[in-house]
Amino acid sequence: MDFTDKRVLVTGSSRGIGFEIAKTFLGAGARVAINGTTEQSVGAAMEKLDDNENTIAAPGNIGTVAGCESAVETAIEAFGGLDILVNNAGVGAGRPIADCDEEMWDAHADVNLKGLFFCCRAAIPELRRSKGNIVNIASDAGLMGVPGIIVYCGTKGGVVNMSRAMALEIAPDVRVNCVCPGYVETDMIRDSIKKRADPAAARQKMVDYAPLKRIASTAEIAHAVLYLASREARFITGASLAIDGGSTAGK
């Protein structure tokens, strides 16, 4: 897939899946705006990417409208427009219902839903001009219910349905799709495993969760994003692509 000179903003790209998406776009010839909450986190990511010619810093707290608008405007000003928006920034925590408080609810809703919506709203005028597209990162937990992560399920389910509704509203100018990963090998997952009483058992539970019996690599998610953003997928909009090893196929 050739993205030569395509202008891309990936939110939450200072680490994890977002970093891999940004790196993969760069490898395909794109120019990429790197987003993270702080200038320091963005700077560290850009140093690892080591491509100052094709990357620009677009820091901003995606949990706030001002942060969303700032990141999008920075990318547009630097590139002279925008072709692709990848809404990857997200938060996730597992707690039983009784332990879910307002602070936790707001943190999830602010980034996973509000942030995604307002990044889209800020980018849509430029994406209409470029006949571009949006790829949202949801989750397999947005396609099915999972006990213990109800707030996360609710917000990621919102991402899936908001992607459908947005695809209808801004067609035919802009395509909107989403990717729904299962467990992915990231620092966040590794840190979560380390905190468990039995880390080996916790990892094995994640491996066993999907019928394919493994955890996805960040590269597998990135390649799915690039496909949906590419010309090869130009007749796809409103779709939710599960990259989950079969976890949503049924039990």
Concise structural overview:
With 251 residues, the protein is an alpha/beta fold. It contains eight helices and seven strands; from the N terminus they run βαβαβαβαβαβαααβ.
What features would you describe in this structure?
- By secondary structure, the protein is an alpha/beta fold.
- It has a single domain, classed as Rossmann fold (3-Layer(aba) Sandwich), CATH 3.40.50.
- The protein is 47% helix and 12% strand.
- A 7-stranded parallel beta sheet has the order 3-2-1-4-5-6-7, with helices on both faces.
- α1 packs across α8 (218-229).
- The termini are far apart.
Helices and strands in order:
Layout: E1 7-10, H1 16-27, E2 31-34, H2 39-49, E3 55-57, H3 65-79, E4 84-87, H4 102-130, E5 133-137, H5 150-170, E6 175-181, H6 187-194, H7 199-209, H8 218-229, E7 240-243
Parallel strand pairs: 1-2, 1-4, 2-3, 4-5, 5-6, 6-7
Write out key terms for the chains shown:
alpha/beta, 251 residues, 7 strands, Rossmann fold
- Give the averaged pLDDT, no decimals: 96
CATH topology: Rossmann fold
Number of extended strands = 7
Number of domains: 1
Distance between the termini: 35 Å
Widest β-sheet, arrangement of strands:
3-2-1-4-5-6-7
Please identify which CATH superfamily we are dealing with.
NAD(P)-binding Rossmann-like Domain
Reported CATH architecture: 3-Layer(aba) Sandwich
Q: What is the N-to-C succession of helices and strands?
A: EHEHEHEHEHEHHHE
